[in-house]
Design goal:
The structure is a homodimer.
Chain A (H helix, E strand, L loop, with lengths): L4 E7 L2 E14 L4 E5 L5 E2 L6 H4 L1 H5 L2 H5 L3 H7 L7 H12 L18 H9 L12 H13 L13 H14 L8 E3 L5 E3 L1 E2 H13 L5 H16 L1 H4 L5 H9 L4 E5 L3 E6 L4 E7 L4 H15 L4 H11 L2 E3 L5 E7 L1 H8 L1
Antiparallel strand pairs in A: 1-2, 1-12, 2-3, 2-10, 4-7, 5-6, 8-9, 9-10, 11-12
Helix pairs in contact in A: 4-5, 4-7, 4-10, 5-7, 9-10, 13-14
């Protein structure tokens, strides 16, 4: 395994499990501030780049033309929990182009939020595509297709005008090829392209600053960041990591999780982008790494640092509520920030 | 990271995630057949040793005296899914000593089985300790306490006569210290003791053969293995890995998963024990490693090998049912079995 251990899972006084990974933090020119592990190895960013995938909708003026609000733009960037507000907002987006959930091609699953799922079960309901955690992004794709006068059917295919738009936006932000050779299929059936973590960090530094990107994207990025800062409950959900951190820090940070342990963030004030992947794909570790990085780079007071450190070193409780262990940043992660 | 990559998660044509780990296969004397990774590093076995924790109940004659059947002994070894049959069986065990679910000290959680959970939600029910995946083991502990004339209250504490019994059984099977220095608290609040994987492999070779263990344990082990072989749906649940494999192979294998990526198994005919831990604690990888080992050591026909290889190389489907990738044994795992 090439990647160093970045997070340890403690039980009692011993390390019970270990998570390796890679992390890179750079500015918009690609100049690295911090790099740990193999940051050139291509990774599938999965949902971590949803905010970049929304750029064509906003930069093209379609979000304005359709009157999409903060909630709706934030939901287009979301891996949401399937709470009622998420489902209603996705439906409202589709109504603006005269469509409904039936045109979504993301597939169905029960809400990630367990309370929402049990409430549905109690009402005798079954999941629809609107409950899919990606339904906001897909509603955005349908909006883009309809606003441009395309038939939305097949909008998940690489050769559909919507995915061509999205692919060009990703290439623009990352300066790295997105083509059949590095393409796979995401959980919601759209293409996902393997790219180096370094390209993701640069892209999110650009997304946070507008540096090095064409004018229409430079104008659109702050609109998207502001929408998520206004509606952080839309981008994930109750108690979720992205929502909790952005509720606390507002537009000082934009962050987005992806499946299989990927995480990206923009720190506009510092002019930095963060990209990381937990090698084994585990979310508890990718969140702990991101929280540790933010504690070092974003916190401006002891209270803010304590909030983020509390997430990086999250306690583990058992079914009786007894604290049985905790996460902790490993020495290689701590060391990289001390250098 | 000391441990080699044992399982790769493919998406399209690329490795998306990697799981490191350690694996040891030995006979009842501790002679190693195969060892990969740091097999001397102590790990918390968690639920993987539940069958050993049942030894005092059976070896002491209490299971017989109370008339515990196959289902009940199998459930005492279980991390069950909380299906109705599991809950009813745990309740039936407690009734045999005049108790009910109120005396269980494992804590409550919703059933692991999603259908069972949603059915409960639809009925307006909330989870009780009987739904805890460890409720069968805990019911066994209460049976042991009552049958011996002890007050069961506090049976989760290290100094309760029940946990003293359990600790001595683990020491007997493993020949390795179980004391305050290597003790932590398990998810269900009983003690869990960090022990080398080598000790676990030896213990499960002994559990499968009776070699090197005192007569009462040598008599009890086949009773426990036979109970699980008769009732594999009790030890896990519908569609779960342990259940599927033991439904197929009967008493030719005993296997048990534990939290944080631990897995143990007995191969009675070969006289071998298997112990492994996925370093990052991920179940998909620990199952794939076990399936690969069983494909090499247990399968006696092309059909059996194909069944197990299908589990080791499980396909991954997305929300539209499209096959987007698969698990695969890494070269270090394959190589260890070719040597």
């Amino acid at each position: 395994m090439n990647d160093p251990v970045l997070v340890e899972v403690m039980r009692g006084t011993r390390v019970e499990s270990r998570h390796g990974g890679a992390l890179v933090i750079s500015d918009a020119s690609g100049k690295r501030r911090i790099a740990i592990g193999d940051v050139e190895r291509p990774v599938y960013p999965r949902s971590a780049v949803k905010a970049l995938q929304v750029l064509p909708l906003v930069a093209g003026g379609f979000a304005d033309a359709l009157g999409l609000g903060h909630d709706e733009i934030a939901l287009a960037c979301a891996s949401h929990s399937g709470e009622p507000a998420h489902v209603e907002t996705a439906e409202a987006m589709l109504e603006k182009v005269g469509r409904d959930g039936g045109c979504l091609e993301c597939g169905s699953h029960w809400p990630l939020d367990q309370e929402a799922m049990r409430a549905m079960a109690a009402r005798g309901e079954t999941p629809r595509s609107l409950h899919n955690n990606c339904s906001g992004k897909h509603a955005g794709f349908v909006c883009l297709a309809c606003a441009e006068g395309h038939d939305p059917r097949g909008y998940i295919r690489p050769d559909h005008p919507v995915q061509e738009h999205v692919r060009r936006a990703l290439v623009t932000m990352m300066d790295t090829p997105h083509e059949a050779a590095n393409r796979a299929i995401d959980g919601c059936s759209i293409p996902t392209y393997a790219v180096p973590l370094t390209a993701l960090a640069t892209a999110f530094a650009r997304f946070g600053t507008g540096e090095g990107v064409p004018g229409d994207f430079a104008d659109a990025a702050p609109v998207i960041r502001a929408a998520v800062a206004e509606a952080p409950s839309m981008v994930a959900g109750k108690g979720r990591f992205d929502t909790r951190v952005m509720e606390r820090f507002g537009d000082r940070v934009f962050m987005k999780t992806g499946a299989e342990g990927v995480y990206c963030a923009s720190l506009p004030d510092a002019g930095l982008g963060i990209a990381l992947k937990c090698a084994d794909g585990t979310t508890r570790a990718s969140e702990a790494i991101m929280a540790y990085a933010l504690a070092r780079l974003l916190a401006q007071s002891a209270e803010e640092e304590s909030f983020l450190t509390g997430l990086a070193e999250a306690p583990l409780h058992n079914w009786n509520g007894i604290e049985v262990g905790q996460l902790q940043p490993a020495s290689s992660l701590r060391g990289a920030f001390q250098a």
